[in-house]
Amino acid sequence: MTITGCHRVEDCFDGSSVLEYVFDTPWSREDVLRLRQIGEVDYYPHFPRPFFRLRGHDGGQVKGVQGETTCRVILPGQCKEDAKREFEALFCPDQAGER
After folding, report:
1. Which pLDDT score, from 0 to 100, does residue 15 have?
2. Domain boundaries, the chain
3. Distances (CA, A) of 89 to 59, 62, 95
4. Mind listing the pLDDT tens digit of every residue in the chain (99 residues)?
5. How far apart are alpha carbons 15 and 34 in whole angstroms?
6. Cα maximum dimension of the chain
7. Pairwise CA distance, residues 71 & 43, whole Å
8. Which of 22, 23, 35, 72 has the largest count of CB atoms under 10 Å?
9. CA distance 99 to 82
10. d(Cα 24, Cα 42) in Å, to the nearest integer?
């Protein structure tokens, strides 16, 4: 699973940023569980659309649906670049931080 695109979705009033990431393949169970490396994952595989949410150690969040090729990343008001680099490093370690 590799990141193929990223764009800003909206600005929040608290200073955080929301980004939508696009991947070359859909989210699988293994990809969702890989997020545990950077925080606590809530995973609901039995939902009609299997939902997951990561609450990162840095205050960021990732939300998505297994089987889709996108997810939303909410970067915290502080440490945005660190949180972004950490997330991207899971999916493209060679290019993390270059987006």
Report:
1. 58
2. 3-91
3. 17, 14, 7
4. 899 999 988 665 665 689 999 999 999 999 999 999 989 999 999 999 999 999 988 788 999 999 999 999 988 777 788 888 888 888 875 654 444
5. 27
6. 36
7. 14
8. 35
9. 13
10. 23
